[in-house]
Amino acid sequence: MPDITSGDVYTGRVLEWHSEEGWGVLASDALPDEVWAHFSVIEAEGFRELTAGQTVVFSAERAEQDQYRWRALCVWPEAGSQRRSDAEDGPGYSSGLDITFDS
Questions:
Q1: Residue 83 resides in a domain
Q2: Residues in CB range of 90: below 8 A, 6 or more apart
């Protein structure tokens, strides 16, 4: 396995996400272990949460967090990998606004 340094950027997926507790587990083929992630490191606007199976890009450091050997430093949800509209695994909110100006 090549040398892995803390702070490298990886592409992976969300294995599980606990919305009510604000944390989850990520995985990447480039890392030997799973990665613990907290909602505060998600780079997104509004309510920050991830969904199991969602593709993400993240940076991580070696750190002991619960039983995990890696901790996410920053998580970027990949464009187009939004929460499924039919998801029934927890609270999800969506809204839209269209404004038309008369000229």
A1: no
A2: 19, 20, 49
Q: Is residue 7 part of a domain?
A: no
Report yes or no on 43 lying in a domain: yes
Provide the whole-model pTM.
0.70
Query: Rounded to whole angstroms, how far apart are CA atoms 17 and 76?
Result: 15
Distance CA 75, CA 68 (A): 17
Per-residue pLDDT of the chain (103 residues; tens, 9 = 90+): 456 555 689 999 999 999 999 999 999 999 999 999 999 999 988 888 999 999 999 999 999 888 999 999 999 998 644 444 444 444 455 567 778 888 7
How many CB atoms lie under 10 A from the CB of residue 50?
Answer: 26
Domain span at residue 61 reads 13-77
* Structural contact between residues 27 and 15, judged by C-beta atoms closer than 8 angstroms: yes
CATH number at residue 33: 2.40.50.140
Domain assignment present for 27: yes
